[in-house]
Amino acid sequence: MSMTKLKIGIVCYPSIGGSGVVATNLGLELAKLGHLVHFISYEEPFRLIKKHRGVYFHKVDINEYSLFKYPDYTLPLAVCIEEVQRKYKLDILHVHYAVPHATAALLAKRIMRQNGIEAPKIITTLHGTDITLLAKDPSLFAIIKYSVERSNGVTAVSQSLKNDTIKVLKTDKPIEVIYNFYTPSKISVPREKIREKLGIKNSDFLAIHLSNLRPVKRIPDLLKIVAKMSAKGGSAFGGKKFPKFKLLILAGGDFKNYEPLVKKLGIQNSLIVKQNVNDIKNYLNAADAGIYTSETESFGMGILETMSYGSPILTTRVGGIPEVVNEGKTGFLLKLGDITGFVSKIKLLMQNEDLRKQMGSEAKKIACKKFCSQTVVKKYLEYYRQIM
Ligand code: GMT
Predict the structure, then answer these.
(1) Does residue 280 form part of some domain?
(2) pTM (2 d.p.)
(3) Rounded to the nearest whole angstrom, what is the distance from the C-alpha of residue 210 to the centroid of ligand 1?
(4) What residue owns the CA closest to ligand 1's atom 16?
(5) DSSP letters of 188-236?
């Protein structure tokens, strides 16, 4: 692969959703390889706080003109993209999440043509709900279809999402599948310390869930699983001398809407909720298994992050999840809403320490091989050159 250094623009949501995490980490990895990376968004992506060589940030200024009920983002984003292009002559503009990023990029390209500026190649990466939710909305369908089809290149984060896109957009646009990636970082607080801090005995079973708590994650299902696991005196084994079950939720959103259900189910003693934790890695490393009950998920970054620290995964067989979790090898895939199915698999892992350990190390191996930055960043670079 030729090593000419590229000038790459990255447009993404700076929020702590998976697409923002993937886009930011991709940019940082590209900069480490010597490419110049220009992030364009309304806020600095949260992992960019420390400065990195070859990484630049361009803030989109939004006009809060009082006449508008909703301040527009697409238009100022298009203007910002054109300004960046005029100054830095990007080779590639890689937008993450089609709405409204792909449309703003195409608008910017029209302004560039008007001003006699050579445009970058536009690559749109689909992340999930841009297709599975938003493109199904009649008020957005036509502009999403247009923007995806007019991009120079399109990628999807799973084969499942590629299939959804072809079906929902009724398109024959070529779509490249390039998975998400995650690079685990060094543990700074040992497992025992974290468990002690959480009041978890080493013999107890600590399940973990990491997400932005949006409705699609089906948190109520998660809480019903906890209720079944903590029936009969704190253990699902009739209170006999068995490990206690606890669930730790690392919340990237507000948990308070779920408090009434926690009270109703009486699971306060089996649940720990921590909001906006910074050192997620230390908590993932202290867990025994991950539980994810999503209704739909094009990939599931929380699942991959949990696997990366050696936990098997109990999750739903939806969307792209079966491409991330291997049934029986790195976790178990249950039917959506099958609470008892989840409970029986958790019990299985609680009673088989060796099985849990073996599945956990398999999960870590797959996470580091199939979804590591080296593999994925290389694929994106090959794709950039193919499109150029
Ligand atoms: O659509 C969302 O929920 C937001 C989006 C995001 O920005 O986190 O999540 C999607 O993109 C992630 C990164 O590619 C995927 O891991 C998530 O599975 C996907 N969410 C859904 O498909 C529901």
Answers:
(1) yes
(2) 0.94
(3) 13
(4) 300
(5) SS-HHHHHHHHT--TTSEEEEEEE---GGG-HHHHHHHHHHHTHHHHST
